[in-house]
Amino acid sequence: VARCTKIINADSNDPKYIINVKQFAKFVVDLADSVAPTDIEEGMRVGVDRNKYQIHIPLPPKIDPTVTMMQVEEKPDVTYSDVGGCKEQIEKLREVVETPLLHPEKFVKLGIEPPKGVLLFGPPGTGKTLCARAVANRTDACFIRVIGSELVQKYVGEGARMVRELFEMARSKKACLIFFDEIDAIGGARFDDGAGGDNEVQRTMLELINQLDGFDPRGNIKVLMATNRPDTLDPALMRPGRLDRKVEFGLPDLEGRAHIFRIHARSMSVERDIRFDLLARLCPNSTGAEIRSVCTEAGMFAIRARRKVATEKDFLEAVNKVIKSYAKFSATPRYMTYN
């Protein structure tokens, strides 16, 4: 097995092919009679006869199993109706991601290029990952979820290779949505401190930047990135053309918190006429994840009391346990400023 690195005299009747065997041996070879010149492209894996040193068969690209496992096989079951407190953010995502995939002709008629990538940023638990899954559900696109720390590898060049193979796999799909969660693990600003580990992370980020610039702007690949710390990202990654839109996910307002309570209560056995607006007022500066924890804790109170439904009193006690006790724990000036 070798890789064709260059084609010499491709337009002539007798082209030659430079192949690379195991990264250290290079040979100039011909094609076997059973292979047509149009079957071989630069960068392709090929099967070579060791005796005659001829290319006998083109091979499909080899993708690391670690990269293949990043693809979410099942369609995400989250819809826009399952996301609360993010109405404005959902509209921005639909405009940037959903419209180019479902209606590309609109951009062709206007003669503009659709946005390539979107950065989702905000405090933890505000719905960044949830919105990404909802967009993937709506577009019927292949959904690839990548954790930033998965691209930080032990050996030099491994992280950059995984990024290349990731986009190579995405190009083979009809439509693909790549979601990089915790992108600050590899996208941090560069410093000239000479540390070997940081240099490897920087190589991975530079390969990611190259891939963002390289694919067709009207292609089938859309990139979403999420982070809690946008201030730490490298400016080269943030510039328009790579990440065209920045969508902020803030803490939900009163109406958003009440909507989140109703979303989680839909799947619970609760009594009627629960005042979700009152519960929302009792949870100021709370994220959607904290409200979900309140609903879970309300169900636990009902289970302890051996009741089949959760009451408003259970929700009030859950608010006092989850929100109030957490507020005491996190009542520091830095936390309050961030929220």
TrEMBL record:
GO molecular function, one term: ATP hydrolysis activity
Pfam family, one: OB_PRS7
CDD domains per UniProt: RecA-like_PAN_like
GO cellular component: cytoplasm; proteasome complex
Annotated compartments: Cytoplasm
Residues annotated as domain AAA+ ATPase: 114-253
Domain of life: Eukaryota
Main subcellular location of this protein, as a coarse class: cytoplasm
Keywords: ATP-binding, Cytoplasm, Nucleotide-binding, Proteasome
Keyword Cytoplasm: yes
UniProt record similarity statement: Belongs to the AAA ATPase family.
Full protein name: 26S proteasome regulatory subunit 7
